[in-house]
Write a structure and sequence with these properties.
Number of helices: 10
Helix content: 10-25%
Strand order of the largest sheet: 1-2-3-5-4
Number of strands: 34
Shape: globular
Length: 634
């Protein structure tokens, strides 16, 4: 878009808007057709790309010329020739002749009588079309057909069609006749059709999702929130997406507040981060300098230190005043939406070193951050401050993404794995390559269906649909679990290789978190296995001071159903499905008075008094914790 400047808006079609613009280099007038792609399905995205491809192949004086196409931040842009003479309609109006103009919406065989008369479109026209489809299902032929459009319009205006066979019930036939009434006011609404007796059996057979709140958490009839202890904390689950509970008697709503805390190991402090402008935080990701949250309604939230915003104030106010503000705001953060105009539902976000990668619910990958990170997956001379579509993966439906500090992996529905960034110790799985600026297809030897990707500091993992594992990257301290235990140690693996060491090869792994020197594997049954260095007691089992281990189960967690694991360089964290947080190793000293403790004996640290944690994210030293406000206190 930097090459073009918009002059004025021309019009809007079914798929996008059109602008008259000029090319900055030579001031040539062109047309920019902007097609929003943020909510497109894979098929729709492919159709948009095909349109551009077809236009690029056409070269004829009577066809609008194609110049180029490209992906912007949130849309596809097709640059076309500007025709100065206007449209055919403009030309005919200039002749002062009497014109018959007709707007046909949808398939001609299904257009309603009022549309044939040129009247405005309304919902009753949809009911007519639905009646035509019902007739076609009952008779295996269309109610109105003709060899020419005028003949078809005449048939529709008369409303004459062959009767349906009497093998159908009278109720169904009456419903059909009402839907094909020439008078739109006599046609039933969609709500009336769904309430019709002939529809009731079919409606009740439909699958209906009645909510995600477990039945045991529902309040008994006649209960009230007058007593705050009416909800038993031992039964309260935080896994539900709903944040409201309602009593049957008074319909009183009690909102649950979810907040985010930043555990700073260097300052030994716990900072309550401000709530986002919209929605509750669902998950978080902590990069080297980024604190990114994802709300339950798909918004990206960024927390930045207030001192980050004071540089502008220093330039326009007294230095002493700015210094006072900076002193008071040293540990204060501001929450803001990453992009107010970013109308995309994000389903997953991950942060690396000075970059962020996110995935929308329609399988589109977005990146933003510093160009110097080398992990944006696109060419740019400037840092990208807001999410931008990763053009190289636009034509793929991506279902899983992950990133380490300096590399990224993406997995598509078609079983394709793409990697980019720095190939430290072979973490990209690209063998000899050292750096890859654009996403590159990785060759995978496994024939199994791939399900999810995970990234560590300098390693990567793939989980298949049968929960088997493949890994590549640095195997120092055996953190990939590649060693067999027979004396030969694997230093690094530069392409994805199956993990065959027991017991990992016998477990169904669903999640992985890898730090600098150790890795945690979460099993489908809630068990946790650890492998790597235990120098800081980060394995949660065995003796400390060991720089090498084989995979082993963390026995002190065996009575808890763990739902998430997270690794820092020096400690480990786990969250149980009933929302207890466990920490072990050299974890942030702000959690407990004692430091360098061995495993926490499956006791809740003094800071976390109740089962309140829903999500954690770590970088090399610090972590972000999402929990419920009413229980989280020091």
């Amino acid at each position: 878009m930097e090459k073009y400047e918009k002059i004025r808006f021309i019009g809007r079609g079914a798929y996008g808007a059109v602008y008259l613009s000029h090319r900055i280099s030579d001031k040539k007038l062109v047309i920019l057709k902007e097609i929003p792609v943020d909510q497109m399905s894979l098929e729709e995205r492919q159709a948009s790309m095909n349109e551009a491809k077809v236009l690029s192949m056409l070269d004829h004086p009577n066809i609008i010329a194609y110049h180029e196409s490209f992906l912007g931040d949130k849309m596809m842009v097709i640059v076309m020739e500007y025709v100065r003479g206007g449209t055919l309609f403009d030309f005919l109006k200039q002749r002062d002749g009497e014109l018959l103009t007709e707007l046909v919406v949808g398939t001609p065989c299904y257009i309603s009588p009022e549309l044939c008369e040129g009247k405005p479109y309304n919902q009753k026209s949809d009911i007519w079309a639905l009646g035509c489809i019902l007739y076609e299902l009952m008779t295996l032929k269309r109610p109105f057909e003709a060899s020419t459009l005028p003949a078809l319009v005449m048939k529709i205006m008369r409303g004459c069609f062959d009767p349906v066979p009497d093998i159908y019930s009278s109720e169904l036939r009456k419903l059909l006749m009402s839907m094909l009434s020439l008078d739109p006011h006599k046609r039933p609404s969609a709500a009336h059709i769904m309430c019709h007796p002939v529809m009731m059996n079919a409606i009740f057979k439909l699958y209906v999702d009645i909510g995600s709140i477990p039945s045991k958490n529902r309040l008994p009839s006649g209960s009230s929130f007058a007593n705050e202890n009416i909800l038993d904390d031992s039964e309260l689950k935080l896994e539900s997406d709903s944040d409201l509970f309602m009593s049957d008697e008074n319909s009183v709503k009690k909102k649950r507040n979810f907040n985010t805390w930043y555990l700073d190991n260097k300052s030994s402090s716990i900072l309550l981060l401000p709530s986002p402008p919209k929605g509750d935080i669902k998950s978080v990701s902590l990069g080297s300098n980024q604190k990114i949250g994802l709300t339950r309604n798909g918004l990206l939230i960024s927390w930045k230190s207030q001192s980050h915003f004071l540089a502008r104030q220093k330039s326009c106010s007294a230095t002493s005043k700015a210094d006072q503000l900076e002193s008071s705001a040293e540990n204060t953060y501001i929450a803001s939406i990453v992009d107010e105009k970013f109308a995309v539902n994000i389903s997953f976000v991950a942060c690396g070193k000075d970059f962020t990668v996110s995935l929308s619910d329609t399988g589109v990958v977005y990146t933003f951050g510093k160009v110097s990170s080398g992990c944006l997956g696109l060419m740019s001379r400037k840092d990208i401050l807001q999410p931008r579509i990763l053009a190289a993966l636009f034509s793929y439906n991506i279902k899983s993404i992950a990133c380490g500090p300096r590399h990224v992996l993406a997995l598509s529905d078609e079983n394709d794995v793409f990697a980019w960034g720095y190939n430290t110790h072979g973490c990209l799985g690209l063998k000899k390559a050292e750096f890859q600026i654009y996403p590159l297809l990785v060759k995978i030897s496994s024939k199994s269906k791939l399900e999810k990707v995970f990234c560590g500091v300098d390693c990567s993992f793939l989980i298949t649909d049968d929960k088997s594992l493949l890994a590549c990257g640095n195997n120092r301290h055996n953190k990939l679990g590649m060693d067999s235990g027979e004396g030969y140690q694997v230093e690094e693996v530069r392409e994805f290789t199956p993990i065959e060491s027991k017991p990992l090869s016998e477990c169904k792994i669903v999640s992985i978190s890898a730090g600098k020197s150790h890795t945690l594997f979460l099993c489908e049954n809630g068990e946790v296995f650890s492998v790597g260095s235990n120098h800081y007691f980060q394995l949660g089992c065995g003796k400390s001071g060991l720089d090498y281990s084989l995979p082993q189960r963390i026995e002190k967690l065996e009575n808890f159903n763990i739902g998430q694991v997270a690794c820092s360089d020096f400690y480990s964290m786990a969250v149980s499905e009933d929302n207890y947080l466990f920490c072990w190793g050299k974890y942030p000293s702000c959690l407990e008075e004692k430091k360098d403790s061995e495993f926490c004996d499956v006791e809740i640290p003094s800071f976390f008094k109740e089962k309140i944690v829903t999500f954690v994210s770590c970088n090399s030293e610090n972590c972000l914790v999402v929990g419920e406000e009413r229980c989280l206190s020091k």
